[in-house]
Structure formats: C-alpha cells, structure tokens
Write a structure and sequence with these properties.
Elements (H helix, E strand, L loop, with lengths): L4 H136 L5 H14 L1
Length: about 160
C-alpha cells in the first residue's frame, strides 16, 4: 500500500477530529452520562429505601395484627366472662321471680282452699240445719229453735 498525500490528510484530519471530540464533545456526553448515572443511582436508592420502608411497615403491620389478635381474643374472653356473669345473674333473678310467683300462687291456692273450706262448712252447716229442721219437724211435728240446732251443729263440728 502506498501512502500518499490524501491518505495522510485523512489521517491528520481524523486525529484532529478525535482530538476535537475528546476536547469538546466527549465532556458534554460524559456530563450527560454522569447526570443520568446519578439520576438512576438516586432512583435506585429511593426504590431501595422505599422497599426497606415497605418491609418495616409490613413488619409493623404484622406486629399490630398480632397485637390486635391478642387484644381481640382477650376482649372475646372478657365478653364471654361478662356473658356468663350476666347469664348467672339473670338466672338467679329468674329463679327468685319463679319462687316468688310459685309462693304467691301457693298462697293464693291456700287462701282459696280456706275460703272453699269455709264456704263448704257454711254450706254443710246450712244443709244440716235444713235437714235437722225437717227431720225434727217430721219426728216431733214441731219447729225447733235456733239454739238447739246451733248446739247440734257445734257438736257435729267437734266430731270432725
């Protein structure tokens, strides 16, 4: 290969072009690349810190969930305890009311029985009075006075 003037001029111009690029263009491109590198590094750091924050927030959330679950189970146990106590309290009240109603009903029944026995005794006395009056009238053909009949009824009551 022959080296001629054209070739030499091309080599020299290429060298000047490279020197020009190194001196003026390359710093500009390097500056842009450096800015981009810093920008990407900052974004990467932000992403990293965001991931770290998310990790710690998730950890806190899980701890809060555990704490809430513990509190919920404690509240649930407290509510069950309160429920049992209220049920026991109202069972006692219901038992008290039950016995109160039963005793009241027994007392009413006793009073009714007393009234019925009293009415029964009065009715028996009246019936006996009428029967004795008719019997004595038939036997003796005379009316009895109230004193005699009352004495007979008293004697009858003493027997029973």
């Amino acid at each position: 290969m022959k080296i001629n003037v054209t070739f030499l001029i091309q080599i020299i111009s290429f060298i000047f072009y490279i020197l020009f690029c190194i001196k003026y263009i390359w710093p500009y491109i390097d500056n842009i690349l450096e800015k981009r590198k810093k920008y990407l590094f900052l974004k990467f750091e932000k992403i990293k810190s965001a991931k770290l924050k998310i990790y710690y927030l998730n950890k806190k959330i899980n701890e809060k969930k555990k704490l809430n679950n513990i509190l919920i189970s404690k509240m649930d146990n407290d509510l069950k305890y309160i429920k049992r106590k209220l049920i026991e309290k109202y069972k006692k009240k219901a038992k008290y009311e039950y016995f109160k109603i039963i005793n009241s009903a027994k007392l009413k029944i006793k009073n009714k029985k007393r009234i019925m026995y009293s009415d029964f005794n009065n009715n028996i006395s009246n019936i006996l009075y009428i029967v004795l009056k008719k019997i004595t009238y038939k036997i003796f053909n005379k009316k009895l006075d109230n004193k005699f009949i009352n004495k007979l009824l008293k004697d009858f009551n003493k027997l029973h």
